[in-house]
Amino acid sequence: MRKVRPSRGVGGGRPRMRPDPPGGVDRACAAGPPAGEGRCPAAMLRAAGPLWGLSLRPRVRPLRPSPPPRPLGPGTLAFASSSSPAAVNLFDRELKRKQKDWAARQPDCVQYDYLREEVGGQVADRVYDIARDFPLALDVGSGRGYIAQHLNKETVGKFFQVDISKNALKNAVKTEISTVSVLADEEFLPFKENTFDLVVSSLSLHWVNDLPRAFKQIHEVLKPDGVFIGAMFGGDTLYELRCSLQLAELEREGGFSPHVSPFTAVNDIGHLLGRAGFNTLTVDTDEIQVNFPGMFEVMEDLQGMGESNCSWNRKPLLHRETMLAAAAIYQEMYGNEDGSVPATFQIYYMIGWKYHDSQARPAVRGSATVSFGDLGKINNLVSQRKE
Questions:
Q1: pTM to 2 decimals?
Q2: Which of 146, 182, 245, 254 sits 20 to 30 Å CA-CA off 81?
């Protein structure tokens, strides 16, 4: 587990209060499965009883005609969004757009970029691990350019940055590579098939309603032998905050509502990528722990990141007594010796390739000349062959 220090230190106290972003005060970030599958103490979770299964109840959004393209400043393209009629809409994408717009236009937005910059750097490192250059690349859900700032022009030629937030694209970080900003929903990529040599994505796809379709579109816009490198929040993200809020709400209100968003499990990532057509898959996990003065600072930073909850079945607000109880539970269950509290972010990294004839293929079944049972005797086998 790696530790990342936010730009506001643990001893810095509460930041100045700002107007609530769109969506109200329910600011919990996207996290994993219900807390019963996370790290809450089992004895406390059993107190939830039969209510535990009620944490996920998606509401289907009625289908509406796609809006016309939205105008934007010079040098930026804008496209309407679209969603798959067969997908259950768990997230309010319009609310998510407003939340990200609100966060990107704050004067102190840079101080909340520490996590996205760290993960964006990890994605860029995986790009450098591939010994080739990429004339045309795409960033799905680019935000302010958290991957682009770590890339150089020797590796990437032209870099397209797609995001749903107009303000995030306007305030994108300047880089040495040539970039093109495209205002579009990550659920609908407005590009032709076989266009890009590389597609990347960092901490954006966890808010997509139809993840299988998103992976399929990414596969389609890649050229043959193109590669997709992505990063998403994992199921144990913010398990401390999730457990504290649920236990406090159970104690004070006799039940709880989902204050963190449902998330894809790690064992599903490889399956979804395979269904989309990717091969030579690699999926690995990492954990980043950030220490804060208290629970309210955790929620303040999530708001500043634009990671407020946007589930359709979210609760509009939490009572003051419930919030204070949650903060006390957070401190008691997870607090550090110095009085700070940790917030854990689990990251799934994934790599998938689009098929090409030049790629290595599995050997024909039955063509092996050495049994796995003989691996312990490999030195003897090699010596015999040399003789």
A1: 0.73
A2: 146
